Amino acid sequence: xYFLTNRDETMEYQIxxxxxxxxxxxxxxxxxxxxxxxxxHALSYSAYDIVNLSDCxxxxxxxxxLNSDGRDFDIKAAGTAMRFLTAFLSKIVxxxxxxxxxxxxxxxxxxxxxxxxxxxxxIEYIEKEGYPPLRIFGSALQGGEISLSxxxxxxxxxALLMVAPLMxxxxxxxxxxNIISRPYIQLTLQLMEQFGVKxxxxxxxxxxxxxxxxxxxxxxxxxxxxxxxxxQMAALNKDAEIELLGLFKNSLQGDSxxxxxxxxxxxxxSYTNKGxxxxxxxxxxxxxxxNFVNEPDLAQTFVVTCVLLNVHFRFSGLQSxxxxxxxRIEALCNELRKLGYLINVEGNSVxxxxxxxxxxxxxxxxxxxxxxxxxxxxxxxxxALPQGICIADPEVVSKSYPxxxxxxxKAGFDIKD
Length: 417
Known about the structure:
This protein has helices at 31-43, 57-67, 79-90, 110-118, 154-163, 182-194, 224-236, 258-261, 299-308, 328-338, 372-378, 404-410; strands at 12-16, 21-26, 50-51, 72-74, 94-99, 122-125, 134-138, 144-149, 171-176, 200-202, 205-208, 218-219, 240-245, 267-271, 275-280, 287-291, 312-316, 344-346, 350-353, 365-366, 389-392, 414-416.
C-alpha cells in the first residue's frame, strides 16, 4: 500500500497512466456528511453507530475530539472540525481550547467567533486576534437574531445552524447579499431534519426554533467530490469506462452537480443500483463558462481538466477558494504555469483561460500546499503527458480520500516514490 499514516512532506510520487482506463472503484464516504452527522449524533446523545463513516483525516479528528475526555483539542488541518467544534464546544459546559496546524492558525475564524459571542458564548483568542487557537468557555447559549454576509464560508453558517435548536431563544440568521455554497447550507438543514429538527429558510432568512434532536440510525453516502477526479480521468483518457460505487442520483451533496457539468467535457453518467457508470460520449464544448459559487470544491478539477483538453473557460464564484487549505487560486496558477498554461485572475473570484501558453518545465513537480484537492486534481495530468507527472507530498490526500493512490493502482496507474 502506498498510503502511509505518518506524513513525509519530502516524498514525491511519479505517476504514469495506463493506455486504457477501466475500473470499478468504491468511493470514500462523504466527508461533508460525516462531519455534520457526527455533530448531530453528539447533540442527540445517540446510541446508534453511524454506518459508513468516512475514514479521512478530517473525520478522524472530529471522532477523536468528540470521544475525548480531555479539554484541549488539536484538529490539525481540518477546517470543518475547527468551525463545527468551535460552535459545539461553546454550548458544552466547561473550559476548552482548540488549535491546529500553522496553516489553520492563519485561517480566519473571527466572523464565527463574533457571531457566537453575540449569541451568548464566551470565546477568546489565545494568540492572534481573529484566528485560532481559541479558548472557549462553554455554557448555555441565549440565541436570538444575527445578520451575516451570505458570501462567508458556508461552514460558519452550518456551525451556527447545528447548535441553533439548543439555544434558549433559537436562532434567526439574516443572510445579506449573494449566498455562496448554498447547497452546503441546504445539506446541513436536510441532515438536521433527519435528526428531528426543522428549520425554515425563506428568502435570505433562516429561522430555527428551540427544539431537541432525536437519535436515529444513520448511513453516510459516498462522496461526490471524490468522484470528480474519476470524471476528470475519464475525460482525459481516450478509452475509459469507470464504475463508481456508492453514489446516488438523488444525493444530498451539492457536488453531485459534477455529473451534469462533465457532460460538457464528453462524459455521460448512467445510474445503476450500485452507483454510476462513466462513458465517453464524443461531445466536448470549446468554451466552458460556469459559476462555481455552489460547488467551490470542484473548481480545481475543472480548471486542470479544461486546460489539458484545450477547452477555454471563464469560471466565477471562486471567492471562497482563497481561504481554503491554501489559496487555491494562487496555487492553481503557480502549478499550471509549470505545465505551460497561463491563467488570468480577476479580483478574488474569477479565473479565465483563453489558450494562453508559456514554456513548460521539462520535469515539473506539482506542489500540493498541504491541500488534498491539489494532489488529486493534478494526479490525472499523468493521462495527458507521456512522461507522467510528479506530485509532491502525495499523502496529503488522507485529508478526504485516504485510498486515492491505492485506487489509482487498482485502475492500472504506475506509481513510484
